[in-house]
Amino acid sequence: MSHTVVISGSSQGLGLVLANYFATQGWTVIGTGRSQRPEGMNAVVQYRILDSADPASSQNFWQELKSAINAEPLCLINNAGGYKGGLLLDLAPEDYAQQMQSIYLTAVHMTRGLINNFTQAKIFNMLSASAMTPLADNGAYGAAKTAATHFFKSLQKQYSPEQYQITNLYPDKMATHGIDDSAMDPTQVAELILNLAGQDKSYYLKDVYLYSLKR
């Protein structure tokens, strides 16, 4: 049986790692992003240029996907959203709006589009340890991740796991833009998510906290 995964924010960083890893494991991978297809993306990945923060665009994307894949097992990884760090006066007012749009609203509209078109799915949400532990210089990013955390915890109460298995992941530090011996390997994180996505067990994980060994 073929498995399909949709990965938002797949043009770089962890999203690109996820797309390439799932592709090597035989999954049908559909990556989305606002920029052009990245050069390092596996050739079998289907890439769609999409502004996921726009509700109409997200809805159209899921309607088209429903016609294409029918009732295959489906997985969504909400990964989109860049990082803007800085103290209160270091960031412009529009930086706060941008973080809420690219992180929180993208997650809302992508998830809403899925649920509006598919009756079952596994949903994985790349959140952040900073959603739980505020830092002085991540008020914009951390607030957007906290909003997304609240949203998905609400959905966990709204829907049964027989409908949507919603797993929130909170990594503390990941080497997504080069080698960093103090951070966790994003490929290993991709391996964990794939194992959870592909398993057919009598349980599932709701909240997963990931910490690098060297802190």
Structure, explained:
With 215 residues, this protein is an alpha/beta fold. It has one domain (4-210): 3-Layer(aba) Sandwich (Rossmann fold), CATH 3.40.50. The protein has five helices and seven strands. It has helices at residues 13-24, 55-69, 93-115, 139-158, 186-198; strands spanning 4-7, 28-33, 46-49, 74-78, 121-126, 164-171, 207-210. Helix 1 links the parallel strand 1 and strand 2 (28-33).
A few lines on this structure:
The protein has 215 residues and is an alpha/beta fold.
Key words describing this protein structure:
seven-stranded parallel sheet, single chain, 5 helices, 39% helix, globular, 215 residues, Rossmann fold, alpha/beta
- Strand proportion, as a percent range, falls in 15-25%
CATH architecture: 3-Layer(aba) Sandwich
Q: Low-confidence spans: pLDDT under 50, at least 5 residues?
A: none
SS field, number of helical segments: 5
The ordered string of helix (H) and strand (E) elements is: EHEEHEHEHEHE
Percent helix, as a range, is 25-40%
Instruction: Say how many strands there are.
Output: 7
What class, by secondary structure content?
alpha/beta
Number of domains: 1
CATH class division: Alpha Beta
CATH topology: Rossmann fold
Task: Spell out the CATH superfamily.
Answer: NAD(P)-binding Rossmann-like Domain
Q: What is the arithmetic mean of pLDDT?
A: 92
Q: So what's the overall shape?
A: globular
Query: What's the end-to-end separation, in Å?
Result: 41 Å
- Sheet having the most strands: 7 strands, parallel
Rg (CA only): 16 Å
Oligomer: single chain
Spatial order of strands in the largest sheet? 3-2-1-4-5-6-7
